[in-house]
Write a structure and sequence with these properties.
alpha+beta, 7 helices, 7 strands, 219 residues, Aminopeptidase, 7-stranded mixed sheet
Length: 219
């Protein structure tokens, strides 16, 4: 901290502080310490005054999550409406290379979903904030379940939102008729989400879907 000095053992002194003002105490210091110590005290007083004048941070809203742990607990899957679709589509804009090349834009996924009768898709929310998107190929008649798309906005990576969101998707699949396996696929190389899927129990199944490696999760 500028202007402050650390006293060595040789420089330490004993000062009678009884009934003396700060100014008087400083003046009793040895001449070589008077200037630096006074400058340091003035710096501290100025910083204290600045903090006192600064407006206090606003209290969080009653329902607003404060900590990452509580945010993670507030994860939900929600249907996408005409009022929210733009926000969900914009989440794709947060992805940067190479991650952005590993998943189709949400706008494309939502458009595809409206032409696929077995598509099941939801937005992932943390509290009231949209943070991701998930889509399944969900065919109970054939007892076939495939994680078609999954993404989390890049500013929210590493917060546990993706893991909890995917856990909720898996919980949904487990309620479906004859659901024993959930499959997916992902690209390889830099930016691949394969490690993320592995942590949730997905393993390679020997299939290749185009240039993507197939993964399976035993339910």
């Amino acid at each position: 901290m500028a202007g402050l000095v650390r006293l060595s053992a040789r420089q330490r002194i004993t000062v009678n502080t009884t009934n003396k003002s700060l100014e008087e105490l400083v003046r009793e210091l040895p001449p070589e310490l008077y200037g630096p110590v006074r400058e340091g005290i003035e710096t501290l007083l100025a910083r204290h005054a600045q903090r006192a004048e600064a407006p206090a941070p606003p209290d969080p809203e009653p329902d607003a999550p404060v900590h990452s742990a509580s945010l993670r607990d507030s994860i939900s899957l929600r249907e996408i409406t005409g009022e929210t679709v733009r926000d969900i589509c914009r989440l794709s804009d947060t992805l940067t290379p190479p991650r952005k090349y590993m998943v189709a834009p949400n706008a494309v996924s939502i458009a595809q979903a409206h032409f696929e009768p077995h598509a099941w898709f939801r937005a992932i929310y943390a509290g009231e904030a949209p943070v991701g998107f998930a889509m399944l190929y969900d065919n109970p008649d054939e007892q076939e379940y495939f994680l078609w798309r999954f993404m989390v906005a890049e500013p929210h990576h590493g917060k546990g939102f993706g893991r909890r969101g995917l856990e909720m998707v898996i919980e949904h699949v487990k309620t479906m008729p004859g659901a024993k396996v959930l499959e997916t696929s992902c690209g390889q190389g830099s930016g691949s989400p394969e490690g993320f899927y592995n942590k949730l129990g997905f393993q390679r199944n020997g299939k290749m879907l185009g240039e993507e490696v197939g993964l399976s999760l035993e339910l």
